[in-house]
């Protein structure tokens, strides 16, 4: 009997120990947020005041950052317009942040009130305030010992907890966590793989790009999605828009982004009519009338688009299950029409007799009111009526 | 047995180490019986059943009523029961979105919460003042009066005037909004201004003006409204206490929309929120949650009360620059002599200096006196001081330098300058900080012509 009790107690103890160990990550994150245990605390305050001072030792990296949208996070005219010159102060913490480690990994930073032209600066990710030290992935170079930034190595650099404070405000990390990229193994990919790719710098040093290609980088945008169109035997046009490259919803991040599927129909009489076929975006919170009619994988709907004198187009669209990724089960925003990783929207477009051909275009807009001229044309495909 | 005893002791020790913080008392899980009961009924039958709850004084439906009164226009989040969480609640994303198909059901739920005097609903009613439907806003304002909170009076007046007081860009049925606002104003004042929602604009405006005067007179005299309850005090209701306390923690959580709404709720609660804010500050300090401290500093700026001032004078000395800066900005909103003294002291700290200077600019002549005497070799601070002096002296001093900042090559300078100029001149003259140079010059010329 006592052996049984002992066994049960040991089992319970093991369970508790396991639980305690599993909680370790959380505990570490909290400790890191408080900023002491993982760092050696330097006695002297760190003397750097501006990201520009970092260029003395890291000129190439600073040049990359200057070319990035992180550095323009405050000065970008579009952001200025959308935030009304930052009179909306709730925008400041992510566009003019203090160091993430000051508030804690994965927690939203707080705003600073100087060096506006540096936007998301070096200190945001690299400064450990409690340690009076800048941190880097390492290995540290020969000059580190005497460098004014008092550097030390830390695995925190490269951790997603540095991106999440701002980029998870709209659940990008939550979306990524539901993809197969988030699973440990050969297919694992995180933010850094696409947005901080490894590069060989002119100096011969291999490092991670500080240009952060993303919404303003045409190449990465084009890799995120595909557009395929063909005329089927019944005369209808089959059109497929897929998120084949993004490890999160497409378009991603916040509610200003929009991707439009547009079509220009050319009549047999030579007339042209352009119409929007669909829009992929997460609506603003006050856009109550924007509905996502394809709430779950497998959902379908029919609608009609009027082409005036050319007649009207019947459209059938189906939300197709993801390829290579599990079906996302946690939906943060039900009205979002963004395309989750691996998913497709398959359209069947029935052209009226008066239409000779149609050209589909996929436009990426950094904000939903952007004109076609300012938007990025990602892909286009032309098909002819049979 | 000795082994078992050791293991047991180890287990107990481990349990003790794993969970050091004792959780506050957790409310029992409430079943949503009412929601289940009305599921599938016609809209009219659902509304009638909700009103019956109030009519028959049926107890035990608070959780259902709270859920029924919610809408995405009020909040980005739900408050969800969670036995493991501090205060017994956690936040979850609000997912009930789309076209508004049940505004009158929300109104019925608000009416029921008012009649049953469910004080736990206080935070939710304060957020319902942002509801997309004006009738829901009006009824929330009335319910709040019965709970001793006057936060909705301005919303009633705005609806009577035909304005939209919410943060939303549209308003449904303005005539209906004015009519219900007028009915509620009549019921709580016992007076009649002859308001007629169908009358012409000028007639309505005149009646609305009379309402504004009546409310101002009543507020100044301290005379209670008909049916007005006593202002909420911490300890009046355990469930309400936990819910308000929880909101003082939400300002320190991840999502910025949550922060914004929790801050708004606490500010609207006014002086009644102060004990909860003070405790929230203590928790924020204990957990080193600077976000919570910064958010609560903002809340205090909106509550004109000696206790707010005392808490802000403490917060402006916080080590975290953003916490101190937001406290400085909040002190500007209070503008008392003690606030000016604290701001003057804060000038010595470079980390909070800019916010302190800006705040002194809003403190009138007392601020101007400090600003005139202050000098430094801090270039950023010098520009902020210029603008602050311009504001504090009502545009009599530092005029040219301030106008020049509107033409600065630095967008941050331009943003700061136009914010101040707009506060002083009550117009931006069409100035756009990101506009081209010619347009900016033209706007600055116009603004110069408006200088006193």
Brief write-up:
The complex is a heterodimer of chains A (386) and B (452). Chain A is α+β, with helices and mostly antiparallel strands and 386 residues long.
Word description of this protein:
The complex is a heterodimer of chains A (386) and B (452). Chain A is α+β, with helices and mostly antiparallel strands. In chain A, 21% of the residues lie in helices and 23% in strands. Chain A has helices at residues 2-22, 24-34, 59-66, 77-82, 92-95, 100-103, 122-126, 164-167, 172-177, 191-195, 218-224; strands spanning 127-128, 133-136, 152-153, 198-200, 206-208, 225-231, 237-243, 258-267, 272-280, 300-306, 312-320, 344-350, 355-365, 376-384. In chain A, the strands form 4 sheets. Chain A has a 5-stranded antiparallel sheet. In chain A, strands 9-8-13-14 form a 4-stranded antiparallel sheet. The longest helix of chain A is centred in the first third of the chain and has 21 residues, at 2-22. Chain A is globular, with a radius of gyration of 25 Å. Chain A starts with a helix and ends with a strand. Chain B has 452 residues and is mostly helical. In chain B, strand 1 (77-81) and strand 2 (89-93) form a beta hairpin. In chain B, helix 7 (134-146) packs parallel to helix 9, helix 12 packs parallel to helix 14 and helix 13 (274-286) packs antiparallel against helix 14. Chain B is globular and about 70 Å long. The chains are: A alpha+beta (386), B mainly alpha (452). Chains A and B meet through helix 1 and helix 4 of A and helix 1, helix 12, helix 14, helix 16 and helix 22 of B.
